[in-house]
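User: I'm writing a tutorial on reading structure tokens. Could you give me a worked example: one chain, its sequence, then its tokens, then a sentence or two explaining what the tokens reveal?
Assistant: Sure. Here is the example chain.
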Amino acid sequence: MLNALWNPITAGEISLPHRLAMAPMTRDRSTPDGIPTELNAEYYAQRASHALIITEGTQPNADGQGYLLTPGIYSEAHIAGWRKVTDAVHGVDGRIVIQLMHAGRMSHPDNTPHHRKPVAPSPVQPTGDMFTPSGPQEMPVPRELSTEEVAATVEDFRRAAAAAIAAGADGVEIHGANGYLPHQFLATNTNQRTDRYGGSIDNRIRFAVEIATAVAEEIGAGRTGFRISPGNPFNDIAESDTHELYPALVRALAPLDLAYLHILHGGDDDLLRTLRKLWPTTLVLNRAGTDIATRAKDIEDGLADIVTVGVMALANPDLVERVRTGAPLNTPDPATFYGGDESGYTDYPTLSAHPA
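And here are its predicted structure tokens:
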């Protein structure tokens, strides 16, 4: 069954040596200004044997930052920082796309250099606290983006995609999942607008489709991916029409001929099969919490073309070698996930460093 993992594939314009890719994971280890460092370059280069690295969420503009020490890709300094990362990954024959993530309302002013109120489709306060430099704080009621500001944000995604390519990335992935800004437009509990971006399904998917269209125009559809998470309640999302919403979104994205669609699977197999039939190009699947054999079976069964792994890739820089040889896996240390230094980041042992 694992043999299905090792066949080469091309996703749009990105040629991949096999089908075991690294999922995006927030790591909180950039500078306060969002600039990647040599430590980030080392981390990603360690994992370059994955078929494709999808980076942590990276804000496309200043208002897009939600968490502490997340990277940006909208300034010359960001481009220079990311160039260190992409050069390091390419130097060991890896492939890397930068995930464009606008956190929207999932933010706090203390986590950003500008200290402005978070922005969102509608002024709906998220539940829960946000970790800030002074500890957990309640997230504020966000400011509603005007119709003109929504269009301007689309253009920010366009410019960020161009910046990612200037930084040497092989492409970008648009983060339309997990309760961040495009997902906030999709969901009825976070989108209460009455303009052309709210109300009907066609209106609620408009922002996501406009972003994908703009990015594909800017850098090429073959270097553009899009991530969704149907039915995912993460970050206080409540979707009332998942089985109508996501087929409509996928139908609208399909004519763009994007490099791939990345689905974070929440357990609705019927919906997954529907989206698989609707999507015309490469489908990337993240079946979180399952073992490698289960994920490989998705390829064998035709539900996916590529599978992504998150925490396993974090704790095992040489996961590909370990899976190929049947070697045991390192155990991840959750206490270090957002620690800010090498611990639980670049210090996980590899087989070559610690031979059996």
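What the tokens reveal: The CA atoms of residues 123 and 333 lie 37 Å apart. DSSP finds eleven helices and 14 strands in the chain.
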